[in-house]
Amino acid sequence: EVVAGTVTECYCGGDVVGTGDFIGGLAGENELDIKIVDCQATGSVSGSSHVGGLIGFNDYDCPVSSSYATGDVTGSEDKIGGLIGLNSQSEVSDCYATGSVSSPGDYVGGLVGHNEYRSILKSYATGDVSGFHGIGGLVGWQSSSSVIDCFAVGDVSGIESVIGGLIGASRGWVTNCFATGRVNGESFVGGLMGSYNGDSTTQQGLVSNCFALGMTSGNSKVGGLIGGVGKYGHVSTSFSGNRVFGIRDTGGFVASNSGTIDSNCYWDVEASQQSTSEGGVGRTTNEMKMAETFLGWDFETVWAIHQFRGYPILRNNPGQSDLIINVIGSPEVVHDRDDFVTFMIVVRNLSTEDVSAVEIGAQVPTQFARDWPDGNYRTYSIGTIGWGQTAIRYYKERLQEKSYLGETRFEVEIAAGYPNRIKANDFSDSRVVIGAPYTITSATELQAMIYDLTADYHLGSDIDASETLEWNDGAGFEPIGTDLTPFTGSFSGMIHKISNLQINRPTAHQVGLFGHVEGATLENVELLDVNIVGFSSVGGLVGHGNVTVSDCFVSGKISAIDVCVGGVIGNIQNSIVRNISASCVVSGEDAGGVVGKAGGGLIDNCHSSGEVSGSE
């Protein structure tokens, strides 16, 4: 127990196992004017009730700032949090928790189990959360308090009721927040909150500038943003873009409402598969990507949107998907985003040694740098960074993270010797790549290769491209490279596979995973169960061009309406093709099991076991 004083720059790395109440990684109970500043706990914590990754019970004017906990937290009763179990009359700011949090009891939150009478500001949680009743990705139960500029990305599950992606039950104010995790419970389940009723004491409250994107499911009272809004609840300038599934009493935006929901609230009718809601306005997916849909919204200082590319995003909050990078040597980390994107870069010093400078730059005119002298978490930013060349002034502050806006390509040079976390939004037509070559891990990232046709790429995982069937109004995947802008880089499948790629472009020339290539190198690519249709120069891997291809395999159906179709390559000149096999059903004129038409070059050790039909 800590009574009177200040605790600053403390680190606790061991696991904490307790059999009773008030258990924390740093302090079991903290009360009466104790400030917690720049503290961290990294071990797992377990106990009965009032259990937190950093503090079990934080009470009465004991602000916690710039602190975090990363261990898993487990309780057997109520008020369990990734950072704090019960936080009362004390502000929490610039804090985060990353461990999973679980208990068979009530009031379980990714950051705080139960928060009352003070605000939580600029904080987040990333771990999965599970419990019985009053369960939230950030806060399980919120009473007479505010949650501002916060987010949660973990999956949330509850056995009973009042389950939310950000907050289980809220009785206060929530502003500039979002949640993206999957949420599941019995009743009163919401992508952002399970239930919301404002402050019962003042009979006031407001949810504004918030959104939810994670799938929401339950038995009854299941809503895209909120399960149920009580009579003191007021919701404004917010949206949901998630799938909503319930047995009964479901709503695209809210499932139950006896409060006030302004007409400037929206939900995606197509994504939610819900045509009705007890408040809010339903719009199509395309309409949800247009600024003019969101009447009265502030797109200058609060929101941002890239027209026709994605949902609105909050300017003050960081991205939603994370990528862990364990650095070996000095690789390059690149975020190359066609979309408008807000993202956060967090680099953590986990050693006691000094940390080398981390240079983070972007193409002209933006540039910034970060380092930690003497092992401290000191952040330096030099120059400007912003979207539309909107500058952020020079700053120096003790924060481990900051968010930026940008449409430019950002390159991050990371010194060797310590792990780093990169966070970025996961919008369509965007890519997160690591190292040289860039690493591709999803169908969306694969498609985003069309934005840099000179780069080197490799697969970082198996990719199921089934989703491409619905892309581009049924036309499917857009081939990489055209006759005007061919692909000239390299691509390696490594040990990974791409399956179920769908392309349906019967009027298009040069069709395949790669449409047109010039001087490119493709190796170790395995395409399984593809279904590709084009007009001419059609292949599973390459439609047309000059290329070096080795150690590749393709299976599936390849069809050309006209000429030059092959299981692997449609039409090539002066190319080298080695160690290729195919098991495809190929149809069209000038058809071949591996290559449809070749002019010059070398074809060595290739074979086909599929069916070929067509004419000469």
Structure description:
By secondary structure, this protein is mainly beta. It has four domains: 1-98, no CATH class; 128-317; 318-427; 464-616, no CATH class. Helices cover 1% and strands 54% of the residues. It has a 16-stranded parallel beta sheet that branches. Strands 55, 56, 57, 58, 59, 60, 61, 62, 63, 64, 65 and 66 form a twelve-stranded parallel beta sheet that branches. An eight-stranded parallel β-barrel has the order 5-9-14-19-24-20-15-10. Strand 47 (358-362) and strand 48 form a beta hairpin. It starts with a strand and ends with a strand. Residues 318-436 have low confidence and may be disordered.
Number of strands: 66
Per the principal axes of the C-alpha atoms, what is the gross shape?
elongated
Q: Gap between N and C termini, in Å?
A: 86 Å
**Alpha carbon gyration radius:** 27 Å
The number of helical runs is: 2
The portion of residues forming beta strands comes to over 45%
**Taking all residues together, what is the mean pLDDT?**
81
Alpha-beta content class? mainly beta
Number of domains: 4
For the biggest sheet, the summary is:
16 strands, parallel
Write the layout of secondary structure elements.
Layout: E1 2-8, E2 11-12, E3 16-17, E4 23-24, E5 27-37, E6 40-41, E7 45-47, E8 51-52, E9 55-59, E10 64-65, E11 68-69, E12 73-75, E13 80-81, E14 84-88, E15 92-93, E16 96-97, E17 101-102, E18 106-109, E19 112-116, E20 120-121, E21 124-125, E22 129-131, E23 133-136, E24 139-148, E25 151-152, E26 156-158, E27 161-164, E28 167-179, E29 183-184, E30 187-190, E31 193-196, E32 206-212, E33 216-223, E34 226-229, E35 234-236, E36 239-240, E37 244-251, E38 254-257, E39 260-261, E40 266-268, H1 269-272, E41 281-283, E42 303-304, E43 313-314, E44 321-326, E45 332-337, E46 341-346, E47 358-362, E48 367-370, E49 379-381, E50 395-397, E51 403-406, E52 410-413, E53 419-424, E54 430-434, E55 438-440, H2 443-447, E56 456-459, E57 463-464, E58 490-492, E59 497-499, E60 502-511, E61 514-523, E62 526-539, E63 542-566, E64 569-592, E65 595-608, E66 611-613
Parallel strand pairs: 1-5, 2-6, 3-7, 4-8, 5-9, 5-10, 6-11, 7-12, 8-13, 9-14, 10-15, 11-16, 12-17, 13-18, 14-19, 15-20, 16-21, 17-22, 18-23, 19-24, 20-24, 21-25, 22-26, 23-27, 24-28, 25-28, 26-29, 27-30, 28-31, 28-32, 29-33, 30-33, 31-34, 32-35, 32-36, 33-37, 34-38, 35-39, 36-40, 40-41, ...
Antiparallel strand pairs: 42-43, 44-53, 45-52, 45-54, 46-51, 46-53, 47-48, 47-52, 49-50
